[in-house]
Amino acid sequence: MSAPSGKTVAAGSGQKTAAADDDTICRAIPTLPTPLAQALRHVHPALMLSLFYLRFGALVRDPVSTMLNSLPVVAALQVAYAVICLPAAGSPAAIQSAKKLRPGEKRKPVADGNAPNITSTVVVALGLSIFATVGLQTFFVLFGAPLLTHIPQTTLCSLHLSLLGLFPLFYTHGISTSDWLEVLGARAPFDEAFGGLVGGCVGAWAGAVPIPLDWDREWQKWPITILCGVYGGYVVGKFIGGTIAFGKKFGG
């Protein structure tokens, strides 16, 4: 019996390497196909904007108290959206969504035997979102936020952005180093979670435009317009990421 040729061995090694690369590439994660998930993914943005609109007057009068008091509601809405609409990190649904199918290959039925604990996933994602507030606060300061004043305002604004933009990503990707390198490097493919983060950051940047204008309006106080941009940008980015830009990346 002849020994396998070097080309055959090399080809097999190359296939294994390609398969390993497929498993480590960050991929767009679609919302769950259940009727409830598909309904909530459309209702959720309307609820967020309605909440913001109803509390806008109070936000102008007392930004700190309003942002603080609205955090439990925002967190509850985000948790409900993630649990109902998105696959948790490490779940069979998330693994199947992230796996690239080869030509002619069909997705295997999803088994629930190795499903992660949803409660622990939510708690960890919330904890990471709170911890990430420090980084977002630094981001705001580098882009012009007051360094020594308005610290509560900046902290709470950062926490709102973290709950909107980062919590869904922590819930779906966990602490995967390869995934987060692509997210932070803006190389991740668009889906609702990543689109929401991009939209929230762009909205925060755009929301800073009215602050220095000489209009003498109460709503120009820091960080009211920033927060307006965060919520508006999050909703727009989430919609675009989940529809026309789904699976696409910056620059291609």
Strand content: under 5%
Count structural domains: 1
What is the end-to-end distance? 49 Å
Largest sheet: none
The average pLDDT is 86
Contiguous low-pLDDT stretches (5 residues minimum) are 7-21
Tell me the Rg in angstroms: 21 Å
List keywords for this structure.
252 residues, mainly alpha, 11 helices, globular, transmembrane, membrane, GPI-anchor biosynthesis, GPI_biosynthesis_protein_Pig-F
Structural summary, described in words:
The protein is an all-alpha fold. The chain has one domain. Helices cover 65% and strands 0% of the residues. The protein has helices at residues 6-24, 35-54, 56-61, 63-85, 92-98, 118-131, 133-142, 151-173, 177-184, 192-207, 224-242. The longest helix is centred in the first third of the chain and has 23 residues, at 63-85. Its main location: endoplasmic reticulum. It is a multi-pass membrane protein. InterPro entries: GPI_biosynthesis_protein_Pig-F. This is GPI biosynthesis protein family Pig-F-domain-containing protein.
